Amino acid sequence: MAVQTEAKTGSNAPPLAMDRRIILSVMMFLQFAIWGSWIIVYYPFLLDKGFTPTQATALNANVYLGAMISMLFAGYLADRVINSERLMAICHIIGAGLLFLMSRLTDPSQYWLLFAVTFGYSLVFNPTLSVINSLTFRNVPDSGRDFPGLRVFGTIGWICAGLLIDQIFSGSVQGADGKPVPNTIATGGPLLQAAVISLFLGVFCLVALPKTPPTGSGAGALDFLRALSMLKDFSFAVFFVITLVASIAMGIYFNSAGDLLKSVGVKNVGSTLAIGQGVELLLLVLLPYFLKQYGLKPVMAIGLFCWALRCLLFAHATPDNPWFYMAIAGIALHGFCFDFFFAAGFIHADKSAPDDLKASAQSLLGFLVYGLGTWLGTITSGQLTERFKTADGTNWFGYWIVPSIVLFVALAAFLVLFKVKKTGQEN
User: Fold this and answer.
1) pLDDT of residue 5 exceeding 50
2) Which of 170, 209, 218, 301 is the most exposed, fewest CB within 10 Å of its CB?
3) Tens of pLDDT along 392-404?
4) pTM
């Protein structure tokens, strides 16, 4: 199956209508404002409440574990059963209630109840990460041209959410060890903020989003397996495996970046991490240019290189190292890491899939990026923490150098094995 295409030419499609652009932009903003409100600070929040590192890692990983189940069905539902905007609404309204419960379950004795709640939340939130892509692709004239300009508002939402939690929950309290703990970590406020946004987005989906009914035919429950058949193409299989490796790195980053910043004395963790989203904001706007000018493979290779470089920079960002600001540089690389590799990859998957499997193809990639890969990365993060534990905390050099080496190897494999089959309209 020849599934590789490359966005390198100008578009003859009509412009995206302004009213639709605004609605889809607001949807993207709110979607990622939910995630950005709490996901980075949840692991240190659990540690501060007395959960063991093993428990905290399992709960954080649980958020992605459910994705591996729910995303198997999200594409099928959007392709065959229910309007995409209604599926989004149901998921976000239920998710708001579960986020509220997560903010209240803070005692280690409630571990198994919290385990069930976080798992339930992952079942309803993660499908929206793929459905929001397929819904957007269905409602724009040209996905390669229009998607980055809409997705950039998701980045703005993430940034605003991080800045907002630092403003609303500013200050600190004294931790059990006598050291100050930022309120963004010490309180359940970020989860409550996420719950409010989730409820609002659920209602917004019902009343404002364009009607996006199912369009698939016949194959039904076999859609996910049909999407897997895309892996018969060797280059797409290479893309799939390398994406898994990068997704593991993303899971490690999400689980430990906040803890790394806390260990080197950063107080405004949310605002500091938002630096990466600021760069992402700029690069998403420029992504269509880079894809057109240089093509898919070079752009994705740069993104993968930045993942490896980021981990290398983090390895040198230790509390006693004068190169601490390498951590800031590593955070700033997030724009290259996410946009050039993952955002470009989602566009590639959309252009590669048959028309009746586009939502299922997004679910397949979402299963990998936001489910299996990130879950494995979160579990790996816990293993690395145990492996490089010291009397004073964590040996961050050892912790980050391992994924850095793996990513450089993955980059070499990508450059050698991934091929882009060009059509007559492409260079």
Assistant:
1) no
2) 218
3) 778 888 999 999 9
4) 0.72
What topology does CATH give the domain 18-213+220-417? Growth Hormone; Chain: A; (1.20.1250)
- For the chain, what are the domain ranges? 18-213+220-417
Q: Which residue has the tokens 């806390």?
A: 262
